[in-house]
Amino acid sequence: MADLTLDRALVDTSDGPILFVAAGRAQSAEFDLGPHHHSRGQLFGSLKGLLSVGIESGVWVVPAIHAVWLPPHHVHSARSHGPFNGWSAFIAEAACESLPKSPCTIRVSGLLREAVLRASTWPLEPLGGVREHVAAVILDEIRNLPVETFGLPLPKEPRLQRIAQALIDDPADERDLAQWADWGALSTRTLSRRFVVETGFNFTTWRQRARLMRALELLAAGKPVTSIGIELGYSTTTAFINLFRRTFGETPAVYRERLQLGPVVTEPSDLTDA
């Protein structure tokens, strides 16, 4: 794999190839990157693990089957949750003209994943021949893949955000609304009302979505459905399967069959400029 050290000078210049990709080794330590931006567009996602991405309009929690597209110059932050293995594709500003104009989350296809992993082996030099065709495939996939609407908006009020982050870190936590309000040092009424105002969901629905987002990541990792239900705190496996089917229109087992995850990258590269 190419040695792609993603320093600020590299991602903030239009010089060099129109596209370069870094794919990183699995890492057990979480990373947390504060607000920053690039002159290049960026598509990034995970092979394994959960990622949260902050932009001006909110924060998304992204499982391994999704990727986030950020047009050039959009301020963003990123944080991993637990062990993480991911990739980033940086695209020259001129090549972003026909790509989405606003940040969005897209479903990662098997074709996109394989093309990205292929591109991560290239040296930093002008593209030609087969490499130019593979780069065109990546741009076409960003342009045409369906935008995902299933996300997990986070509240901005610090106390609510602290509660939300705790639930993301441990979706199986069984504390009820009153207990979370007490832990967050605010009234039950304030927690209930402000959660709807800031996320668009009531507290119970938001917590269900947090569990389902983690379920997607665990399914992508190949965990048995029974184990996922237990790990996420559902009273029975049937309860988990029924909620999953109502949300996604199919059972967890069927959903997992369609994930078609690519290989996990184990060779070192620097992903610390997501």
UniProtKB/TrEMBL annotation:
SMART domains attached to this UniProt entry: HTH_ARAC
GO MF terms, alphabetically ordered: DNA-binding transcription factor activity; sequence-specific DNA binding
Entry keywords, A to Z: DNA-binding, Repressor, Transcription, Transcription regulation
Domain HTH araC/xylS-type: 161-258
A Pfam short name: HTH_18
Record has Repressor as a keyword: yes
Residue stretches in coiled coil: none
CDD domains to which the protein is assigned, alphabetical: cupin_NimR-like_N (cd06124)
Protein name: AraC-like DNA-binding protein
Naturally occurring in which organism (per UniProt): Paraburkholderia bryophila
Taxonomy of the source species: Bacteria, Pseudomonadati, Pseudomonadota, Betaproteobacteria, Burkholderiales
